Amino acid sequence: MSLSPQLWTAEVVYAGFGTPMKNGAIAVVGQHVVGVGGLEELRRAFPQAEIIPKGRALTPAPVNAHTHLDLSALPYFRGRYLDFLNYVIGNAEKRGLEAARIGYAELRRLGVGAFGDIVARDEVMDFLLEESMLPGVAYREVIGANPDTAQEIFDTVKPRLLAWKKREGNLRVGISPHTAHTVSAPLLQRLVEFARLEGFPMQIHLAESPAEVEYLRYDRGPLLPFLQPYRGPHWKTPGVSPVRYLADLGVLGPHLTLVHAVQVAEEDVQILAQSGCKVVSCPRSNEGLACGEFPWEVYLKWGVEVALGTDSRASSPDLNVKNEALHLWGKVDPRVLVRSATRAGYRVLGLAMPRLSRGTPIAEVHIW
After folding, report:
1. Could you identify which of 176, 193, 200, 354 might form a hypothetical disulfide with 139, taking C-beta atoms 3.0 to 4.6 angstroms apart as the criterion?
2. Could you tell me which residue ranges the Amidohydrolase-related domain spans (predicted)?
3. In Å, how far are 172, 309, 344 from 270, measured between CA atoms?
């Protein structure tokens, strides 16, 4: 084994603390990191070191903050958002435990540091709690658009969540009200109150597509005939944006992470900033389902924490969260993307951020 020092460089170097660096480097001797900092600083400290370019970025393990592992057996779909919903519903027999095993194995191969998964079936929750070697959050999905069934649904899911919480290990248990248009206001309020009292983290899909905004604001558009049979006679159209709707219900807060949040105005982002909500963006899924372009500049302006996720294998070509960042490389400041794929992901899932420092094994340095 050579003990000659090397300086590994990349377009962005991030040690897991501070600001991701351009013109940074990692000093390596043998199988360990011996220093992280600016390239010129490390060149002075190691004047004989060979400089080795290593790609786009050098970071700790990235985080896939939003997955649907039980969709991992479905072929990749591109098309309209509503067509995708029908595609998933029409392939219900391909969802479940075996698909989740496939997706989880992919995450392990990719070397993610943590993940968030939306769990639609109890057997998948049991599998993840028993077998996951990775940390993160498994969010049990809840659906129920009819306000008249809110208490019944809540009473059914509450004891399951409490029982799963007692089995937490590497993974925490969370709650995922599916969307603002598939979960009635009283059910959503019950779930949020319960989550706050018992300490469950939450994720909700919100403001994903133009059709969602049209439905919640005006009770029209392609989602109306799709949802009308499920919402019951007492559904009331909010008449406001999805973000404003949740704000008016009093359910926003640091406990809640919004997934997608593409279809937002600056006023909505300001509301999220004031509430302490975090966001997970899924760029390739949003593009493939024609949902719109995530307004990075507005979120940065208001200081909202934005992590990255892949959504599902049904709506993205893989579960590699690095590819979400690389998909936007050149359009968004790469330092922002690197931070979103690492530190922001850990923060969304309530986990400590690993760091690259003197003594870190080089096996823990991720090369993009």
Report:
1. 176
2. 58-351
3. 29, 22, 18
